[in-house]
Write a structure and sequence with these properties.
alpha/beta; 30% helix; globular
């Protein structure tokens, strides 16, 4: 969801050099008009060192394409959009790749306009807009952008890349699975690929278990620093509670260890109701039989980022995303207008009902990437171990299925890599910190120079001044390797009702 951070991260990256530079064959304004099937280019103007095209793909996908006016190296990069989208993630202008990178860049709004990425009202009565958002927008934009590039430079791109996080990570996975010939290299960060249960059950659960009968928060923002400090002291890899949690599955922290003395309530401790809520957050949504309705819960180490995600009841980010999806996008027939958090049913039957439409147009859960592999495609998947928005176990379970489909870990490494980043929040940023690294460059090197990524440095820095807080290097993760988790951990033993097929 962190569009601005991802923009700045991309702008800061020093992208690998590609083929020899190309120059335009026609003037930028000549691209305007209706010369492209199913698309109308409303404007084509030179802005700085780019020829910038804006327009609409039928039935209503707004797009922006940025073409370097000099130094193009035959590379094309398409960027994904988070949440329920509605905005083009190349705005403001500085979000495009730097001119000296040589990339032509494009993005779209996934078929609708909205100032709020949690707003789903655009799809309430329009099945076609839902299909465009869930399934076709990125493929359509890729086809258009490549046609525009070919006309402008006189040749198609030699290499095409896609990068997205969260909702954009779902789009990235959808492209690898359903449109395997569109891109040579794909970066999927914290992917929301298990979309229907993520939006329909996981997000509402995060909000509801922290909401009391009067609609107020049970766990407040004031308790989060003490809770996080206690977790790090119990499980962090640094001295005195510093550092990060390398793998939450080995953490056995019990929230009851922070319980307040009888009759007291302060920011430095947890009441009995708060202890129960914290446990429920770590465990994730479950039915009455104790089966998990999403694979995973809030990871140990994510606590400081709860403030921006699940604090605030029905007004929290988690609640707004979940309720907008359930009210306007999740079903063939929408629930009543007054549908709220209290109406969400955490049952296996509801899980099945959500996946009827989810499997058709939203979910990107197919682990068989044989067609993408045959095309020569390379996939880099990453997820933060402290992701407060999308449980990292969803990516672990998906990649385990991918490994099995590919024939094992070694076979999967021929076309894919999976990285888990300790201490990283959603899309590598949040709670005042960010991971100062780049995952696009390694994929470019892999595609163009056959240099497969191995160890990647992922330092964590403070947002306010860029000071380095943690320095770490991560390696490709084998999701099928034994983990030997701590038996007391609330982040293990998930009994997920679904499968990745």
């Amino acid at each position: 969801m962190r569009v601005l951070f991802l923009c700045l991260l991309l702008c800061a990256a020093s992208l690998a050099a590609g083929p020899a530079a190309g120059s335009p064959r026609i003037a930028c304004p000549q691209l305007a008009g209706t010369g492209f099937p199913q698309a109308r280019v409303s404007s084509a103007e030179t802005e700085g060192s780019y020829c910038v095209l804006r327009g609409v793909l039928e039935p209503g996908t707004h797009f922006e394409i940025r073409l370097p006016t000099h130094g193009w190296r035959g590379q094309y990069l398409q960027r994904g959009c988070g949440g329920l989208c509605g905005q083009i993630p190349l705005e403001p202008a500085q979000c495009a790749a730097p001119a000296n990178s040589g990339f032509a860049v494009a993005a779209d709004d996934q078929g609708h306009r909205s100032a709020d990425p949690s707003d789903g009202r655009w799809g309430a009565h329009d099945p076609e807009l839902r299909r465009v958002f869930g399934l076709t927008s990125e493929h359509s934009t890729a086809r258009l952008a490549k046609a525009v590039i070919a006309r402008f430079y006189g040749r198609a791109p030699a290499y095409s890349y896609y990068e997205g996080c969260s909702g954009g990570g779902r789009e990235a996975m959808m492209l690898a699975q359903r449109y395997p010939d569109d891109f040579d290299g794909i970066v999927a960060g914290a992917p929301a690929n298990n979309w229907a249960p993520l939006l329909g059950l996981y997000q509402p659960w995060l909000a509801r278990v922290n909401t009391d009968a009067n609609g107020r928060d049970i766990l407040g923002a004031e308790q989060l620093p003490a809770l996080h400090r206690a977790v790090l002291e119990a499980c962090g890899n640094g001295n005195g509670g510093l550092g990060v949690i390398t793998d939450p599955r080995h953490c056995g922290f019990d929230p009851a260890s922070l319980a307040c003395a009888r009759g007291t309530d302060s920011p430095g401790c947890l009441t009995p109701a708060q202890v129960h809520t914290v446990r429920e957050l770590y465990r994730g949504p479950r039915d009455a039989a104790g089966r998990n309705l999403f694979d995973g819960g809030e990871p140990y180490g994510s606590e400081l980022a709860w403030r921006e995600w699940l604090i605030g009841g029905a007004h929290s980010t988690a609640a707004r995303l979940g309720l907008n999806y359930l009210k306007y996008l999740a079903y063939q027939h929408n629930p009543p207008a007054g549908f709220g958090l209290a109406d969400v049913r955490f049952t296996a039957a509801e899980f099945t009902a959500l996946n009827r439409l989810g499997d058709r147009i939203y979910n990107a859960n197919d682990p068989d990437l044989s067609r993408f592999r045959a095309h020569g495609g390379k996939l880099l998947l990453y997820h933060g171990w402290a992701d407060q928005a999308i449980s990292p176990w969803s990516s672990i379970d998906y990649y385990a299925a991918l490994e099995r489909s590919a024939g094992g870990f070694a076979a999967s490494q021929r076309f894919s890599r999976f990285y888990l980043v300790p201490g990283a929040h959603h899309c590598l940023t949040g709670a005042g910190t960010k991971v100062d690294t780049d995952f696009l460059n390694p994929v470019v090197d892999w595609v163009q120079h056959a240099k497969a990524p191995e160890a990647i440095r992922t330092p964590i820095v403070r947002d306010s001044d860029g000071a380095q807080l943690v320095d770490q290097t991560i390696r490709p993760h084998d999701a099928l390797a034994p983990t030997y988790p701590n038996r007391a951990s609330l982040n293990t033993g998930y009994d997920y009702v679904g499968t990745y097929r």
